[in-house]
Amino acid sequence: MKLKNTINQIIFYIFLTIFLVYIIFPFLWQTLTSFKTPQELFSIPPTWIPSKIYTGYYINVFTKRPFLTYLKNSFIVASSTTLFSLFVSSFAAYALARLKFKGKAIILSLVLSVSMFPGIAIVSPLFIFLKNVNILNSYLGLILTYTTFAIPLSLWILTSFFKEIPFELEESAKVDGATPMQAFLKIIMPLATPGMFTTAILTFIAAWNEFLFALVFNTQDSMRTVPVGIAMFPGEHDLPWGDIAAASVVVTVPLIIMVLIFQKRIISGLTAGAVKG
Amino acid sequence: MIEQKNLTSPTKQSKFQLSEATLGYILVAPALLCIIAIALYPVLNTFKLSLYYMKLQLPGLTHFVGLQNYNTLFSDSRFWSATLNTVFFTVVSVALELVLGMVMALLMNKKFKGTGLVRAAVLIPWAIPTVISALMWKFIYNDQFGVLNDILMKIGLISSYKAWLGNPSSAMSAAIFADVWKTAPFMALLLLAGLQNISQDLYEAAKVDGAGSIRQFFRITLPLLKPTILVALIFRTLDAFRVFDLIFVMTGGGPGNSTETLSIYAYKTLFRNLDFGIGSAIAVIIFIFVFIFAMFYIKLLDKSILK
Questions:
Q1: Is residue A90 a contact partner of residue A158, using CB atoms and an 8 Å limit?
Q2: Which one of B40, B245, B301 has the shortest CB-CB distance to A211?
Q3: Domain B77-305 has what CATH class?
Q4: The domain containing residue A246 runs over which residues?
């Protein structure tokens, strides 16, 4: 029995190791690639461990390419999207969770159905619209689109959050003469901060990673976001793998740190929508 | 006493009721406005565009053609191959994700040192932008400098370097493999959340009855996990069906059109050929398919939130 347990344990750890290697290897490889000298990078068979730390690609990315501009654009778009969608969704979520009015089910279905919208199904009219009002190659076009696509998940998470806050709190506020608006701003909002935080992280990551709309709407190099910018690194004939690897590391490391710090919130936010059903 | 109060001040009561409902609509309005203006209205517009002959480079020639764009598509072999590719990609990647996600979830559901670390690691593929993971895998698959060839050579599975993405017979599988890497962890987290809702007592009772772990999995875990699996499957199916970034960056739909999915075909028609009529028709077809699935999904979810 004891032996069987030990064997089971060993099998378990073997599986766990395979699983972890599988998960981590591609990014690890990309990181190693980003520090190889050009000779090592283009050797056959590939060099696994760089002989020294070569930082040429990192310097390239920041000096010879407008990578800093891409980072700035992505940051502006993703953080504005986060603020906008948080603002809009928390109001709506509060109303849906705690106020009495007709048509809630319809509104909620309408909003949630948008989370399923394939981007490609709306990209052509939006493109024409943004072209007509002259905001192609702007932040606003992307922010509005991303906000809309962030609303469903935000609304979902926040509505379930607002529901868990006891109703007595508002009742007593009303007895004390507070209007529903005051009850919302002074009592409910502060209690919902953790939910808002989760929503903010998920919205930011989604906006930071989005590709299709950014590709179509912002074609000017100076207005490109990070994903599109990096995807455009490969030229007509050359594939600058070193630069791509370095840029990937720069973009991914902050995301990984964020994920490590906030993993509990992210997981609860991601699974909230899907598991409750 | 309260009733009496209500009777004596009916105006105040109704005023309060009114203000609550009005406030509700006011608070919902901005979100609803965004959704209507930037999602619903454009979708209707796409339907409309799909009934027109419309080429952006020939703005004067735009005119109504009815269902002709759909007719053109239905007799277009490239459209059918894109449909087939999309369905193949969706079915195979979602199936693999489910199996792999289940294995990962079962592993993570065990108690061991470092659970938190493993869970964080699982989030890495999810958090990496799809574009970057596509480029990462593209380099791993590279026919000369790629590490995949090196690994497979060293363990003796292949005798010469292969052009994984350059060959129509392997390019789709390579793309699917990369997609599974990126999304199986998400599946695993959903399933794990479901697993944690299953009471341990059931397993204890099964153990007492002498049921082995395989029996326990098929008799307890799988049936109780069914709702979670269903939701996760629909969720991922919708996502996989719209696949764009990964394939766009990895192969651009090539070689030939062997990895071209409907979204890629729609994108090329819209923004390379500037044919907004046909391109919108493809988009409408994608939308209708996704919509049918989505309705199913919302039906499942709807039950819980408004209770």
A1: yes
A2: B245
A3: mainly alpha
A4: 55-275
